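ENTRY TYPE: paired fold submission
RECORD: A
CONTENT: sequence, then structure tokens
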Amino acid sequence: MPDEPPLATERTSVLLAEYTALRAEVASRSAAQHTLINIDLTACGAIAGLALSGRVAVAVLLLIPFLSGCCAMLYFDHAAQIDTIGSYLDTEVRPALARLLGDDTLLRWEGANKVERSQRRPLLIRFGIPLLLLFVLGPAALCAGLVVTADAWWKWAALAAGFVVQGVVCTMWFSLFRRWAAPSSPGDASSPGDAVQGEA
């Protein structure tokens, strides 16, 4: 039985409010992602600068894998949540609004990039490799380079812990990349661009 006009109007208002609130959450999480990148680059650069200048012991570089790893975990958590929100908006909210309004062409941004999800090479170049270099390969290479300075048990323990943290980050990166690059089924089209960069 079709909705009466007042009921349809109320449902439309609720769905639009939900859509607006979730898009605002995407924007907020995207801003947090950019902040995490700035924190990671600034803090790691400052630590490296102090160590290379001789103002502090070289061992302070052992902090970088942990700092970078924490930033990466938070970044990827935001990315996963953004991806989930995008999928929900495209598979639940938009179809419900389309049924109520009788127009299937509305609010299609969440599904606009679904073709890109199946093109692994552009996705890897645009999103995969930069994040891998920033959060995984750079800190891991630093850990490997610091092996020659490990002359105490606590340094070896810190290096081992650093490699473990980077292993966790690499696993999170790989899991998210597979999720973004998975072939899209009809109606399931969250955008990897949103999840990585938070395009509004």
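RECORD: B
CONTENT: sequence, then structure tokens
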Amino acid sequence: MSQRMTRRRARLLPLGASLAALPRPLRFGVVGAFCAAVQLSVLAGLVYLGLERHLANVVGGLVATQVNFALSARFTWSDRPVSGNPLAAVLGRLARFNAMSLATLIVNWGVFALASHVVPLLLAGFLGILAATGANYLVSGWLVFRREVLPPPVRVPR
């Protein structure tokens, strides 16, 4: 590893430790805000490069979702490690995370669709985001990053 990379990594380590010290809901919010910035950056970059804006938004959302999974596993839910076969366990979590992301997107759309008939447009959008965020936090803790029940240690007879 180059000396430059080592210095850069050394500067980032306190950031990770600081984030890990925050209460879980704040870590969840920081990760979510960062992933929103990732999505918007990918969207802007792809549109700048000539990709159609709706497709660019979908790609940005897909990239941000995968980044969100990685950061959620590392920071938000790091106290809940996987057990058993690590690759199979992480792939299972990734599949559940992506399914949950699709479900909470539908929650967002549904709340927006209902609320937009009775409140101003941006408030309806905010209510959709709020509902999806709450559902995302609850389902992440309950299903995606659930505490693994470890089997009791095997006793070897003497």
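NOTES ON RECORD B: The chain has a mean pLDDT of 86. The helical segments are 3-21, 24-48, 53-76, 86-115, 121-144.
STATUS: closed
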